[in-house]
Amino acid sequence: MPGTVRMELKSAEIIDAVKRMKKKQRDSLLEDLLAATSPEYLESIKEARRHYKTGRIKVHNAVFGR
């Protein structure tokens, strides 16, 4: 495939790289992996956005009073 770069990585190298990431970077990576592998996850995000736009979402304080 043109424009594709192939490289071999050992799983230990990937694990080490993820361990060195800051929490925000790890969270972002996990979200990207979920999005890339789970159509259900992407649909749940779309549904949540629809709910937000139509006002079906309530803020925490309105529900729990805190």
Number of helices, where a helix is a run of at least 4 consecutive DSSP H or I residues = 4
Low-pLDDT regions: none
Shape: elongated
Strand percentage:
under 5%
Chain-averaged pLDDT: 90
Question: Main sheet, how many strands, which sense, barrel?
Answer: none
Query: Would you count the extended β strands for me?
Result: 0
Going by helix content, strand content and strand pairing, the class is mainly alpha
Overall description:
This protein is 68% helix and 0% strand. The model has no long low-confidence stretch (mean pLDDT 90). It is built from four helices and no strands. With 66 residues, it is mostly helical.
Which SSEs are present, and which pair or pack?
Layout: H1 11-20, H2 23-37, H3 39-53, H4 60-64
Keywords:
66 residues, mainly alpha, 4 helices, 68% helix, elongated
Summarize the structure.
The chain has helices at residues 11-20, 23-37, 39-53, 60-64. The chain has 66 residues and is mainly alpha-helical. The N and C termini lie far apart (55 Å).
